[in-house]
Amino acid sequence: MVGFQAALRDEIGVQDNRLGLDQPPEMNPQQDDVLPDNEEYGSPSVYHPQSPQNSPGSESSTNVKPDNMNRASDLLMAVSIGADLNKNKIIEQGIRAMEELIKMATLGEPLWQRIGNGGMETLNGIQYLREFGCIDATMEDIIRMVEVGEPLLFPSFDGNDNYFAPETPAAPFLKSGFEPLHIEASRDVRFINMSPVNIVEWLMDSKQWPVVFSSIVSRATLLGVILDSVDGSYNGVLQVMTAEFHQSTPLIPARHSYFARYCKRLAFGTWAVVDVSLENLFPYPQVQFRRRPSGCLIHEVPGNGSSRITWVEHIEVDNKFLHPLFRPIVSSGFAFGAKRWIAAIYRHCRWLVTSMARTTPTDAGVLIPQTGRDNLLKLAERLTRNFFVNFSSCTENMWMGLPLNFGHEDIRFRFGNTLAFPGKPLNNTLIFTTSVRIPVPVNVLFDFLRDGRTRNKWDMLSSELLTRELAYVITGEDPRNRVSIIQVNSSPSKIEVLYLQESYTDESGSYIVYAPVEALTMSMIINGVNPNSVSLLSSGFVVLPDKPPGQGNEPVGSILTLSFHCADSSSTNEFIPASTLKTIDEILGITAAAIRKAVMANRSGTQSGRR
Questions:
Q1: pLDDT of 111-136, one tens digit each?
Q2: How many C-beta neighbours within 10 Å does residue 385 have?
Q3: Which of 458, 515, 453 is nearest to 483 (CA)?
Q4: Alpha carbon of residue 433 to chain centroid
Q5: How many CB atoms within 10 Å of residue 89?
Q6: Which of 125, 156, 483, 561 lies 20 to 30 Å (CA to CA) from residue 470?
Q7: CA 595 → CA 560, 564, 605, distances in Å?
Q8: Residue 15: other Cβ atoms inside 10 A
Q9: Which residues pair with 544 in a beta bridge?
Q10: Could you report the per-residue pLDDT of 382-416, keeping only the tens digit for each?
């Protein structure tokens, strides 16, 4: 293993995980290039990158096709040509969406049904049609057939039908050969220790929104404002936006949407914010994702400045490019559902509370000054946000599949930014990832991966070394949610490397994100030196359940996504040596096998101890 570690450092350019001391390097973004689609493989020792759609294993390609990338200009043109007419249509659509959201947020059974003990609230499709759909006598007959066991095709946006037009007939949805988009709908309610006005600002400010929801929103753009505020607040504001929504894996396609966002104050202390897709305003032959009226109803809790949020997520999506491993949790609505949106708001609130706190819980008597504590939190925020962006399937991330002869797993990789080391030539960075199923619960896997004491059981560069959590800052009510400094020693007196790590878990999933930081650099950060110039190559894990919680009596296992970001001096945008591809496969394969072996052994030992 020691020999492989040395080869790994030389091949990928980890360079003992040192980032540079005197002048911490900065990341210099550059646009990654790929060869034309007709580029062929070179010699057996060289891999020529292809476009993602033509790369090996591209059957489940998650990159957005080029013809979907210019729809923002199409939408703007649709709004500008016949401006008054189209603006009136957007306003009408926003008002109708607000009415539907309020009803969806306030109605109970039979419209909403809870699956299992503690499971999600999901939509009763038939009841939804009766409440909101345009149902004629024929559709009523079809619904009655479904209630006695016959199949039903639910109405869909597909075909660019106007969802809100009451005169829209049901018949087009049943035409021969029509394949409707998959419908996901969920609802969740939670109390958040933040005022409704602040939450509304996070949602309506196009710069704050992707920051608060960085684990969901890859990028967001405000295209224009249709209606301005009526009282100086966001009350009455209707704006047109575009955004991409993601999970942190290229195996789940990103969801690209153009929508109107309408905000309204319903009463004193009560607000509503609704999104609704606008694709029906202009003809477009293929739509892969649409938001039906989705958003939240926010009620102020009297006396303590907190809010009760009811979130409704109701979308249509084309799931044919979805990787089979993730199909159960995505198609159920869990992966992009209401619970995840509310969890993101809650996490951001807890982060703000932590950043303003004046106390610093630490381990082993380590004292972190307040400025150092603030620096760690700022650096960890950047670390985690970069991780979410780098490993998503958003349009800008051009993923390629590893050739099948290099490994058995579905491995994806791409070039990252150019990395500058002082006094050395510029290096590319390589980003690579895969996902595997581990038959243990999410909490078991999360606890193992976040624990500094067990890092040497899976981290190839920490193997057989001493690892521990040196210090931490708790960032949530759950003490496992924390920013940590993990120390790796080759002997009790010699520090090899320090890792900055953030771990976080909630009912929507878990993640552990880390990056190596040289000891002297970490000392400077803790002692108040501005961390903005420190470059971080975010690596880590995302842990999701392998099926939606609350469905069925079978034990829920985990889907583990492993993601690494390394400097690479041997590759360029034109070619990658086969030895590098082999190393990518070995890093992912050996790490996944080590994690599986360790958690299964711990699980067996625990069960034996109970007996």
A1: 998 876 556 788 888 888 888 875 55
A2: 16
A3: 515
A4: 14
A5: 19
A6: 561
A7: 10, 15, 15
A8: 17
A9: 559
A10: 999 999 999 998 888 889 888 776 766 789 999 88
Rounded to an integer, the average pLDDT of 512-540 is 89
Return the bridge partners of 28, or none: 418
Helix axes 370-390, 519-526, angle to 10 degrees: 120
Helix (H) or strand (E) holding 593: helix 578-610
Question: Using CA atoms, how far apart are residues 466 and 223, in angstroms rounded to an integer?
Answer: 52
What HEC string does 35-76 produce? Answer: CCCCCCCCCCCEECCCCHHHCCCHHHCCCCCHHHCCHHHHHH
Q: Where are the alpha helices (DSSP H) in 360-484?
A: 370-390, 442-450
Which segments of 419-518 does DSSP mark as H helices, in order? Answer: 442-450
**Residues in a beta bridge with 489:** 466, 495
Helices (H), 471-563: 519-526
Give yes or no for residue 495 having a pLDDT over 50: yes
Domain formed by 2-60+363-577+590-610, architecture: 2-Layer Sandwich (3.30)
Q: How many CB atoms lie within 10 A of CB 4?
A: 15
Is beta strand 306-317 parallel, antiparallel or unpaired with respect to 289-291? Answer: antiparallel
Question: Could you tell me the CATH superfamily of domain 67-350?
Answer: START domain (3.30.530.20)
Q: What pLDDT score was predicted for residue 444?
A: 94
Q: Are 495 and 531 in contact (CB under 8 A)?
A: no
- Neighbouring residues of 591: CB distance < 8 A, sequence distance ≥ 6: 458, 459, 460, 562
Instruction: Summarize pLDDT for 338-369 with one digit per residue, the tens.
Output: 999 999 999 999 999 888 876 655 555 567 78
Q: What is the pLDDT of residue 369?
A: 81
pLDDT digits (tens, 9 = 90+) for 263-294: 999 999 999 999 999 877 765 656 788 899 99
Bin 543: left if φ > 0, else alpha if -120 < ψ < 50, else beta.
Answer: beta
Identify the residue whose tokens are 């360029």.
572
* Domain definitions of the chain by residue range: 2-60+363-577+590-610, 67-350
pTM, entire model: 0.81
- How far apart are alpha carbons 372 and 363 in whole angstroms? 15
Helices within 281-369 (DSSP H only): 327-331, 338-356
Quote the pLDDT of residue 539: 96
What SS3 state is found at 559?
strand
Q: Do domains 2-60+363-577+590-610 and 67-350 have the same CATH topology?
A: yes
- Containing 407, the helix (H) or strand (E) segment is none
For 169-217, the DSSP string reads -SGGGG-TT--PPEEEEEEEEEEESS-HHHHHHHHH-TTTHHHHTTTTE
CB-CB neighbours of 317 under 10 Å: 23
At 72-99, the pLDDT tens digits run 555 555 555 446 667 888 999 999 999 9
What is the rounded distance in angstroms from the CA atom of residue 578 to the CA atom of residue 1? 21
- pLDDT for residue 45: 42
